[in-house]
Design a protein that fits this description.
By secondary structure, the chain is an alpha+beta fold. The chain is built from six helices and 17 strands. InterPro entries: P-loop_NTPase.
Amino acid sequence: MWYYRIADLVIAIDAVAGMPRMSNFEPFACQPAQPDISYRVHTYAPADSPVPDEQALELVSADMVNRTYMADGRMYKRVAMREGDARCMWFVQTLGQWSQADVYIPHDWLDYHGFGNVLSMEKTILPFGGLMLHCALIEYEGRGIVFTAPSQTGKSTQASLWEKHRGARTLNGDRAVLRATEDGIFAYGSPWAGSSDLYIDRRVPLRAVIMLEQAKENRIRTLSHAEGLGLFVQQSSLPLWEPELFEAGMRTLEKIITGVPMGMLSCLPDAGAVECVAKWIG
């Protein structure tokens, strides 16, 4: 059994013999403890599908790599392993039983480096007050600032500017986890870091959320509750097709939006953008 602590949640993975440990998860390894979320890993022969025929399932979400289905009170996520390769991994979870899930991987590809994707933690953490956000997370003076925007809008650039001009530390350059707890709202590093390769196990109180857009000058304005909610939903990939998970995510969003300042930064990739945000935060 592998144990990890991610966003203060204990994750247990009942791995199978021959599976190598995931290097991006190792900074989050912890001692055995009562898990919040447990995954049972199974192997299967690619010729024998471990799930019902896809034609019998309702497709609810799809992208280049993942396809999510619903049927008979269960959620099925199919994860393609490599372009041109028919093999795939499956995530299966019974709706309402959010503390456990099953993962199926081909018996002839146990060392596939994308195993972390099939854990579907962007969904499994929702009932626990967690939210995975496409963003760059920095730590500045002991608190977290999140920069979020569509891809190629400058999240990593702004994080780097804060490192250079303010001595901040980037905790994650692609996906951080936000959690609303009884003790406050916190941001966490995660095992999903994209090209930044920053797998840092650290929790910081969340100081601000900054939405980004490119512009010809630097300026920032405070977002209204409605604006912040709409923009946040776009970057958090909430499952619109599963009411309980969606509502859990929306409850967390509401707590974040009402508890943390949110700003829209129209910016250039320069030091002026850093100063603009620093003055706004105060």
